[in-house]
Amino acid sequence: MRTICKFETADGKYDWLNQLLAAETSQRFPDRVVYDNHQII
Predict the structure, then answer these.
(1) I need a surface site. Which of 3, 16, 30, 38 has the fewest CB within 10 A?
(2) For the chain, what is the domain count?
(3) Which value, in Å, is the radius of gyration of the alpha carbons in the chain?
(4) Exposed/middle/buried for 36, CB within 10 Å: 0-12, 13-18, 19+?
(5) What pLDDT, on a 0 to 100 scale, did the predictor assign at position 24?
(6) DSSP string computed for the chain
(7) How far is CA 3 from CA 10, 12, 25, in A?
(8) pLDDT for the residue 11
């Protein structure tokens, strides 16, 4: 599965996340789900 991630935080320490656009891929396994996030520049 592929998704686009948008982050939102009110803490100024993490304000850089508010500007970040990322793409995510995920894989489902019997015992877990693995997410890989990558920043789009």
Answers:
(1) 30
(2) 1
(3) 13
(4) exposed
(5) 93
(6) -EEEEE-----GGGHHHHT-EEEEEEEEETTEEEEEEEE--
(7) 23, 26, 7
(8) 95
Rounded to an integer, what distance in angstroms lies between the CA atom of residue 11 and that of residue 17? 10
Domain housing 29 = 2-39
Nearest to 1 by CA among 28, 31, 32, 19: 28
Query: In this predicted structure, what is the pLDDT of residue 3?
Result: 86
pTM score of the predicted model = 0.54
* DSSP-derived secondary structure letter, 13: G
Show the tokens assigned to 22: 């990322």
pLDDT digits (tens, 9 = 90+) for 1-41: 788 888 899 999 999 999 998 999 999 999 999 999 999 88
